[in-house]
Amino acid sequence: MGTIFKSITASVFLCLFLFPVVFCNPNEGLYRIGLKKRKFDQSNRVAAQLDSKEGEAYRTSIRKYHLRGNLGDSEDADIVELKNYMDAQYFGEIGIGTPPQKFTVIFDTGSSNLWVPSSKCYLSIACFLHSKYKSKSSSTYKKNGKSAAIHYGTGAISGFFSEDHVKVGDLIVEHQEFIEATKEPGLTFLVAKFDGILGLGFQEISVGNAVPLWYNMVNQGLVSKPVFSFWFNRNADEEEGGEIVFGGVDPNHYKGEHTYVPVTQKGYWQFNMGDVLIDGKTTGFCASGCAAIADSGTSLLAGPTSIITEVNHAIGATGVVSQECKAVVSQYGETIISMLLAKDEPKKICSQIGLCTFDGNRGVSMGIESVVNENTQRASGGLRNGMCSTCELTVVWLQNQLKQNKTQDLILDYVNDLCDRLPSPMGESAVDCNNLASMPNISFTIGGKIFELTPEQYVLKVGEGDVTQCISGFSALDVPPPRGPLWILGDVFMGQFHTVFDYGNMRVGFAEAA
């Protein structure tokens, strides 16, 4: 994360599943871990706010960037299947210790440390809601004790280093240094579907200079090729969320050949990218080149404000908060005015119309979140629902206007204008779900090849039926030279293009996902 996800953001994340069933194809030498899928329901939507990163992140998804050829089918590749949570979090299962203690983690190419909650985490609520590592229960545990802290864009953890064996798929990585988190403040990790983070970035950005787990996989001879690859299943309704393959690639999940570009700066998996096109027309800003990062721990796509503004204008995107505000005014404005005129208690109105519950003092969220973005969660008061918060604002505005003896039409027009002025946290935007067919394709130039995303691919749909919301997969992130301009290619991009991280040749490859 480094994006929480990547959030929020984000940023939407990555995940393995509990209750694995292992399948082995002796002809391939690949081990697959079968996963059961959690059924998504409205009450769990708050947990989807992570790109996030992301997620976590800005998770609009840019959580961690505080910035402060074809490899073929390997016979010694280990496959870990991933769970897809509403196209925003991907997570998988690992085991730490002997016998293995199970944890669900995000496999994050945008950070380099492994951390999980510790049994010595006493004061953070998030630790009580997730699996905790118990060193006394492991015969292979070795004490380290060095303190550690990781600050993400939308969350932070602190604790201390320990050493133990880590089981990933069918592989056992011995003497792996990892962080036992004793503090997980805030809401980011409280509502997360994952327990911890497994970083797959370079040691250059590893906190405490800890050797990343992937390095130890290679150094201990556990994989025949120093390569790992991702396939994300973007169909949230299917049982299989995707897979990460250590030691090679799965040819069943891509078409044609990969286009490779060299890693230009170790730390993140960073490379040079060319022009960004809207409906085949240049945006100009990256025509002479931009840096880009392939980040599995970030839900969305983030880039320079100048281009994101052009993209969001072309797709008709508006601020999420403004859209929610106008929805409340349109659906409930007249009702709220009538209730205020009837002398109903203002602080109870939003609970009476069903947008909040009432705790005796004020309205509170019923746990139904309106967008897949952890930054919206933070901006709307943590666990308090976005619509609940907006309703409370609307009540205050309407109440003030009624005191000025204005007509109903003038009052509603005025409040709608106020909705337009509401800032969207970290720049996430919504689009009209009915307009997908008329939206342009957005293309990225990598290694001289055009990688195109259709509206159906770069728009996240949240909810079903009449309450469906469509969220733009693009978020603004401005990084000045020499590090920028910089793009973060998160799960929105990697979901459409199978991605190979070739550590041996220091390159990243993309091919159409199958």
Automatic annotation (TrEMBL):
Q: Name one GO biological process term.
A: lipid metabolic process
Q: Give every Peptidase A1 domain span.
A: 90-511
* Cellular localization per UniProt: Vacuole
Entry-linked Pfam families: Asp, SapB_1, SapB_2
| Alphabetic keyword roster | Aspartyl protease, Disulfide bond, Glycoprotein, Hydrolase, Protease, Signal, Vacuole, Zymogen
Show where the Saposin B-type domain sits.
320-360, 384-425
InterPro entries given in the database record:
Aspartic_peptidase_A1, Aspartic_peptidase_AS, PEPTIDASE_A1, Peptidase_aspartic_dom_sf, Phytepsin, SapB_1, SapB_2, Saposin-like
On whether Protease is a keyword of this UniProt record, the answer is: yes
Q: Which cysteines are joined by disulfide bonds?
A: C121-C127
Which CDD domains does the protein's record reference? Answer: phytepsin
Q: Which residues form the active site?
A: D108, D295
Quick one: signal sequence residues? 1-24
GO CC term (a single one): vacuole
Q: Which GO terms describe its molecular function?
A: aspartic-type endopeptidase activity
Tell me the protein family, please: Belongs to the peptidase A1 family.
Name of the protein: Aspartic proteinase
